[in-house]
Amino acid sequence: MINVIRSPATHLKEVPTLKRPLTVLKGIGPKRAQLLGRRGLHTLIDLLFFLPIRYEDRRRISPISETRHDVPALVRGMVISGGEERAFPGRRGLFRIIIQDETAPLELLWFNYRKAHLDGYTTKGQTLTAYGRIRLNRGKRQIIHPDITLVGDAREQVFLGYFPVYPAIKGISGQVLRSLISQTLAQGQEANMEILPEETIRRLGLPRLGEALGNVHFPPDGVSIDLLNQFKTKEHRRLTFDHFFYVMINIVMRKMFSRERTGPVVSVPKDLEDRLLNYFPFSLTRDQLRTIREIAGDLAIGRSMNRLLQGDVGCGKTVVAAVTSHMVIHNNWQVAIMVPTQVLAQQHFAYFSSLPRSMGFRPVILTGRLKWSDRLKRYEKIRNGEYNLIIGTQALIQEGLSFARLGLVVIDEQHRFGVRQRSLLDKKGENPHLLVMTATPIPRTLAMTVFADLDISVIKEYPKGHRPVETFLADATQKRKVFNTLYQRLSKGEQGMVICPVIEGSEEEDLKNVVEMHERLTKLFEPRFRVGLIHGRLSTDQKDRVMEEFRGGRIDLLVGTTVIEVGVHAPGATMMVIEHPERFGLSQLHQLRGRVGRGSRRGLCVLMVSEDSSHESLSRVKVLADSNDGFEIAERDLEMRGQGELMGTRQAGAGELDLGAVFREPELLTAAKEEAQCILESDPKLALPENHRLRKLISTRSIFPTD
Ligand code: ADP
Ligand code: MG
Fold this sequence. Notes:
Layout (H helix, E strand, L loop, with lengths): L6 H6 L3 H4 L10 H9 L5 H5 L5 E5 L13 E14 L8 E7 L4 E6 L4 H5 L7 E11 L2 E5 L2 E4 L5 H4 L1 E5 L8 H18 L6 H7 L4 H9 L7 H5 L4 H25 L13 H8 L6 H15 L5 E6 L5 H14 L3 E6 L2 H13 L8 E4 L5 H12 L5 E5 H5 L7 E6 L5 E2 L1 H7 L6 E6 L5 H7 L4 E5 L10 E5 L4 H13 L3 E5 L7 H19 L5 E4 L5 H12 L5 E4 L12 E7 L6 H8 L10 E5 L6 H12 L3 H10 L16 E2 L1 H6 L1 H17 L9 H6 L2 H4 L4
Parallel strand pairs: 4-6, 9-15, 9-16, 10-12, 10-13, 11-12, 13-15, 17-22, 18-20, 18-21, 19-20, 21-22
Antiparallel strand pairs: 1-8, 2-3, 2-5, 3-4, 5-6, 5-7, 14-23
Helix pairs in contact: 7-9, 9-11, 11-27, 13-14, 23-25
Magnesium ion binds next to helix 14.
């Protein structure tokens, strides 16, 4: 699971002691500061909110003979022997220390190590404490790359008890990080930090911020390890509440503002619904038509529309966006369509360019690859109104571009939730209508809170001819059969995808698995078919190129991570294999499988479950095989509290909600909204941006995110 809590941290930037750079800490010189900076850690506050991703239970020492294969254990024993071993001169060696307690011996092994460091632990008769996952290797117990300490060492303090594990930072060991955080916490306690109004803390019975941060970084022995690892201790919940509260303040405030905002008046042609028959080669579904009527109602009354269009993958949201754009452009306004990726921008540009001229579109695309001079030319033609439909990624459209008459902004495939994009629009100083589209099915109750500042339209009906993706569970024994099916599909000229999870905290290992899977499939399928690879470590350009090749059919089989998820479809893709589905959230799996079977052939999705999956996680994943209704699946996800590890929107930044946290703690979200409402409604003047009291209460940056 991912735990990103950033907005409250921005508030603490007002506290002078915590604003200081990390170099004030013992043990940090310019070099380490630079390494930490690369990870976005610059000040003491940043470090305070850099939270553990999981906890190890190192409270009890086990007799070595009672440790079990593949289970982590804390053991203590006397050193029997120790030293480096090399099979051949010049080859890489290994380092082995053997310890023993009253019950059994244990081998500690290292393949990557600093010899000088480990040499310090080899003196016979010393007592070592070691933690790690036990392996039974031909009857011998081993730990590979254990964490060790000498009994009586000052380090034991942090080594024992609950042990926090942080996201890896290149060049900074966990040990160094923990020491830095404990120094920072001490400084924080002195600063007596708090960011919530006193009344809120009392009313909800929340722990104070200093205490919460202290216990989340270094939990006391009494709490349950399960609560810790689910981020459900009262201290974790306090931090989650803060995160929600800051986003909710923004959302409630936008709702209060938007009541009074005047927007472009757009008159709707009387014969619109007849015209649609000429514009599209099919008739619109009832849900599409209803949505269009709801939108037309908003556009006509002279207030800015703020509407969310929620609809499962493939239900035809783009058509609704096209009709809405047509209405706005028909009234001589411009439309901007913002999408998360360049490939999606290209896909939309091609689509809108293909629509009949009579719809009135003069589309242009803005991509990062444009030469500067070309981009300036396009900017100019947007400024003077020659182009009336501007399609691009969010970054491009926001960046210094001005419009002649911007009447509507469409945000497509919004999968980062919160108020950030919407707040950025406010700064444009105009009040264009806003249509946000998302395929993330959030249960209605939650949507009303998450999108409190938006009116919601839902499309439930699929276009005629839509066939749901067939979904099966398979285990390792069926792998061969699965790959055979894949081979057959590719032989027919169809395309396939294989998705592997990458989770924060085990990125290195996970990424290795993706690359290995790619190698394996390349061996199996090339040269007859071309196998591509895509993951988050590639540059945006590289990713776009791979996606384009896949869309264009030049790659037959694409192996990758969830970066494939975002809105793009390859019409030829008909089969998807998902590795370790139990590590994903259900809604995310549903979105993923929606990427296949969008052409004429029905899609097939195989969920490759591990043999050692628990009964619970199997029955959870099975929901996918049984249902094709994104909303129903989201409801189930909510019931099960979004247990998939990947549920979170990893990059929740200032003004954005971590969707994982939303599914985990729906009640806290409601409480946060109520608190925000209570504060703002008790004194509506607080909601004015120029009001200093609110600025004091909550940080300027988190209310009006600018970064
Ligand atoms: P999404 O909601 O996932 O963005 P799209 O807008 O991309 O879905 O639509 C999916 C496919 O369905 C497209 O190929 C589109 O042309 C087609 N489509 C949309 N509406 C209809 C309809 N009313 N009848 C038939 N096909 C439709
Ligand atoms: Mg779409």
